[in-house]
Amino acid sequence: MGSYNFQERFVPFIQDGTKTHTIRGIRKHPQKIGALMHLFSGLRRIKPALRIIPAPACTDVKTILILQDERVCLIDAILNKDEAEDLAIVLANAKELKNFPSFIHRFLNDDEKDKLAWADGFRNENKGYEKNTVFCFVKMFNWFAENHDLPFAGHINYWK
């Protein structure tokens, strides 16, 4: 069971069901598939926190790497912090990935990165509910670059 705090700007997207995942740094005890996810806004504030929606069940967990050169790699495994950071360093320095089995990782193309960013709540101004995904990844990448060290190694926790 995990508790997750969201900025207020993401709350409407969670409530309307268009945001169904969260990208977080790797925790010592990762989210378990099938376990409840408690979604809040305003934790650690003076006023009481808002439970955004009733606790959904986690449907999937993947490892995500966001590299300095704006490549995004999804890994169909739940890596621990050391494994993910080591892999991120290897991938950041690799020109080709001939030695890595393709089932372990997949780099997203530009369209997939924009769709991921839109689904994560990084949306174009005044078009929050209109599925215009163009340049959404730029907003997401800039946020990660400002708030985390790159390469970023984390987990995407999905719910339904």
Provide an overview of this structure:
There is one protein chain. With 160 residues, this protein is α+β, with helices and mostly antiparallel strands. It contains 4 helices and 8 strands; from the N terminus they run E-H-E-E-E-E-E-H-E-H-H-E. The protein has helices at 11-15, 81-93, 110-119, 136-147, and strands spanning 2-6, 21-25, 37-41, 50-51, 58-66, 72-75, 105-107, 152-159. A 5-stranded antiparallel β-sheet has the order 2-8-5-6-7. A 3-stranded mixed β-sheet has the order 1-3-4, with no helix packed on it. The chain is globular, with a radius of gyration of 16 Å. The model has no long low-confidence stretch (mean pLDDT 89).
Biggest sheet character: 5 strands, antiparallel
By secondary-structure content and strand pairing, the structural class works out as alpha+beta
Give, in spatial order, the strands making up the sheet with the most strands: 2-8-5-6-7
Q: Give the terminus-to-terminus CA distance.
A: 15 Å
Identify low-pLDDT runs. Answer: none
Query: Please, what is the oligomeric state?
Result: single chain
Shape: globular
The overall strand count is 8
Mean pLDDT over all positions:
89
Cα-atom radius of gyration: 16 Å
- Tally of contiguous helical segments: 4
Give the percentage of residues in beta strands.
25-35%
- Write the H/E string, N to C: EHEEEEEHEHHE
